[in-house]
Write a structure and sequence with these properties.
- The strands form two sheets. The chain has a five-stranded parallel sheet, sandwiched between helices.
- The chain is an alpha/beta fold and 196 residues long.
- The protein has helices spanning 18-33, 54-65, 75-82, 99-108, 146-157, 175-195; strands at residues 2-7, 38-43, 85-91, 115-118, 121-124, 130-136, 162-168.
- The protein binds flavin mononucleotide.
Length: 196
Amino acid sequence: MKLLFIDGCVSQRGPASRTRALAGAFLSAFQAAHPEAEVETVVLETLDAKPFLPAALDERDALASIGAFDAPVFDLARQFRGADRIVAAAPFWDLSFPAAMRTYIEHISVNGLCYHYEADGCHGDCRGTRLAYLTTGGDFQRPESLGVLYWKQLSAMFGIPRFDYVFAGGLDVDPAKTAALLEAACQEARALGREF
Ligand SMILES: Cc1cc2nc3c(=O)[nH]c(=O)nc-3n(C[C@H](O)[C@H](O)[C@H](O)COP(=O)(O)O)c2cc1C
């Protein structure tokens, strides 16, 4: 089994990133429960991927039109498409997540590879059966929190049937409560990682 870890833990806190702590809690529990699993990581902070502009989109479309999906521009999409399980982690930034994650999403959203259209609309073509999204926010979680909703809808679009998430919210509200809130979320992430 292959788990793809989308590491979007872009943080001024460096290794002390709360989002990284949440992702670490999930991953150690996952690896303890699935020692045979291969974990592949894509680090968004160091990724050499740019947002798509028209010329680059034209080039990508031309390659897709001849079925040249082995071209490097499709590397991230092929990796995403082939993963059995996926976990993505990113802090809650400006009501969603860092732009590096949005750019990554542009690179994996490939019509003809990760999804396709039929008369009734979009159908997903990814192998994954589960996707989890892990995030930490300064404010408390709201039902309409976009990072979570975005990944939930992406999972559906890519044909990944089960979506789970952990939102460690309220971390910037009262510094005295931050550690306890984060630890509670890490416990949730550990439980999810164990049965993922
Ligand atoms: C650029 C930036 C934008 C942020 N935007 C939001 C936001 O829209 N909503 C929110 O609740 N917290 C926001 N925060 C707070 C972070 O989500 C919060 O501090 C989080 O725990 C940071 O995680 P980290 O320790 O992994 O960096 C923002 C922080 C930064 C640096």
